[in-house]
Amino acid sequence: MENCNVSCLSSDIGNLISLTHLDLNGNNLCTLPDSIGNLTRLQILNMAYCNVSYLSSEIGNLISLTDLDLRGNDLCALPDSIGNLTRLQSLKMVGCNVSHLPSEIGSLISLRDLNLVENNLRSLPDSIGNLTCLTFLAISNCNVSYLPSEIGSLISLTGLFLDGNNFCTLPDSIGNLTRLVCLHMTNCNVSYLPSEIGSLISLANLVLDGNNLCTLPDSVGKLYRLIGLSMNNCNLSHMPSAIWRLMGLSLEYLYLKGCHKSAESNFVYNVMKAAIWQVQDYRMFHPIHGFVNHSSIHLTWGEVPRWFEYQTEGSSLSVKVPPLVNQKIWSLAVCVIYIGSNSNEKCNQKGFFFLEYHINKVQRRSYLIGDRGDGLCREDQMFLKFTSMSELEGGDEVEIFITKCWHIQVKKCAAKLIFEVDEDTDDEA
After folding, report:
1. Which residues, 6+ apart, have CB-to-CB distance to 146 below 8 Å?
2. If 254 and its partner were Cys, which of 138, 143, 297, 376 is the partner (CB 3.0–4.6 Å)?
C-alpha cells in the first residue's frame, strides 16, 4: 500500500492475523486503528512519511515485530507500551519531532539499530544502557546537551553518530565501547575529550569537525586501529605526539582544514615537521605492523616549507634520487597546494584529483584524492602525502603527476625524500 494516498485504515485490518509485512510508506494516515494490535505475527511495519501524529498503546501488542519504520511523522512521543516489542531489531524515527523517549525503550532487548536523527530529544533516558545488543545509534541534530553515563553499557555498539548536538564533552564511560568502529560528533560544541577515549580499541574513524577542541588527550595514541581522523574547523593549537606514531601503524587520513587560529601559531609547520620526523623513526617499521605507505594530511594553507627540496609551480614534478651512501630512503613526502577551480560555484562541491608516481618512466602508483569541499573555493588547501619508496636507488627518477582534476586547480607541488636520518626540517619557511 505504498504511496496510495490512503487517509484511513479500516479497523478490519485487525482481522489479518497472519500478516507478516505491512508497508504503508507515503500515505496520509494520521493514525492507525486500535485493531492494529491484533496483528501479533506482524514482523515488519513501515509507516514512514504517513503524517502520523499519534501511536496508540496497542502498538505494543505487535510482539513479533522486528522492524518498525516511523520516519518523517510528527509523533512527539512514543507510547510506553513500545517496551513490549522485545523482538524489535530496528527502530527508525528520523525527523519525527520526538521530544521524549519513555524509559520503557530500555526493554527493547533485541534492538540493534536505533535511528533518532533530527528530533528534539535534549537527553536520553538512563535505560538506554539496557540495549546491550545495539550496534548502531544515531542521535544527530537532536538538541541533546547531555549523554548519560549508561551509554557506556552499549557494549555491542559499532557506530555512534552524535553530530549537531550541544554537549561539551563525553562521559568517561565512553571508554567501555571497545567494539566501536565509527564515532562521529561534528559541530557539538565539544571542548574536551576524556582520556578514556583511548580505550576505544576498535575505533577506525573519528570525526570531530567544527568543535572547540584545542588538542586531543595523549591517550589517542592507543587507538592502534584508527584509519581516519578529521578535526576540520576546530580550534587546534597542539597535536599530541601520539598522533604521529599512529601514522606509522594505522592512520591513513588526517583532516586539519580550517584551523586558522592554529595556523597563526605555526601549527601547520609543526604538524608537517612532526609527521616527517615520525616517518624517519625506524620504530614505525615494526615487523608486525609494517609501515602505512599511504598516510595523508589535509590542511588549509598555501605555502610550501623550503625544506621540501623539490618544488615547482603547476601540477607535475621530477625528483632525481641522489647517490645513496650509507643511507636508506624510507618514504617520499609530496605536498600539493590547490584551490577550487570555479570560485563562482557553490563551495560545498567535492573536488578530486589523481596523484600518480612514475619511477624511471614506468607508472608504479596512483591514488584518487578527494576533497570534501569545505572552503574549497575560498582558500588555498594543502595535501600532504607520505608514500613508502624503500625500493628507490641512487640515480632513479621519480615523476609526480597530478591529473584528472575535478573542481580543483593545482597551484604548486613539492616533494621531499625522507631518509633514515634527515634533520633538514628545522626552518619554518
Report:
1. 122, 123, 167
2. 297
3-class SS of residue 198? helix
Q: Is 418 helix (H, G, I), strand (E, B) or coil?
A: strand
Cell (9 digits) for 299: 590542511
**CA end-to-end span of the chain, whole Å?**
66
Residue 131, C-beta contacts closer than 8 angstroms, at least 6 positions apart: 105, 106, 108, 109, 111, 114, 154
Q: What is the DSSP string of 213-282?
A: -S---GGGGG-TT--EEE-TT---S---HHHHHHTTTT--EEEETT-HHHHHTTHHHHHHHHHHHHHH-G
Residues of the chain with CATH 3.80.10.10: 1-114
Q: How far apart are CA 289 and CA 276, in angstroms?
A: 19
The domain 310-419 is placed in CATH, from the list 2.60.120, 1.25.40, 2.40.128, 3.30.750, at: 2.60.120
pLDDT tens sequence for the chain (429 residues): 555 566 678 888 999 999 999 999 988 887 889 999 999 999 999 999 999 998 999 999 999 999 999 999 999 889 999 999 999 999 999 999 999 999 999 999 999 999 999 999 989 999 999 999 999 999 999 999 989 999 999 999 999 999 999 988 899 999 999 999 999 999 999 999 999 999 999 999 999 999 999 889 999 999 999 999 999 989 887 788 788 778 767 888 899 888 755 455 466 666 776 666 665 554 444 433 444 456 888 888 888 888 899 999 999 999 999 998 888 888 899 999 998 876 545 555 678 899 999 999 999 888 888 876 555 667 888 899 988 888 899 999 999 999 988 888 899 999 999 887 554 545 444
Q: Characterize 186-202 residue by residue with b for buried, 16 or more Cβ atoms within 10 angstroms of its Cβ, and e for exposed.
A: bbbebeebbebbbbbee
CB 71 within 8 A of CB 94: yes
Phi-psi region of 330 (alpha: psi -120 to 50; beta: other; left: phi over 0): alpha
Residues near 181 by Cβ (< 8 Å), separated by ≥ 6? 158, 159, 202, 203, 204, 205
The ranges of the chain annotated as CATH 2.60.120 are 310-419
> Which CATH topology does 1-114 take?
3.80.10
The pTM of this model reads 0.88
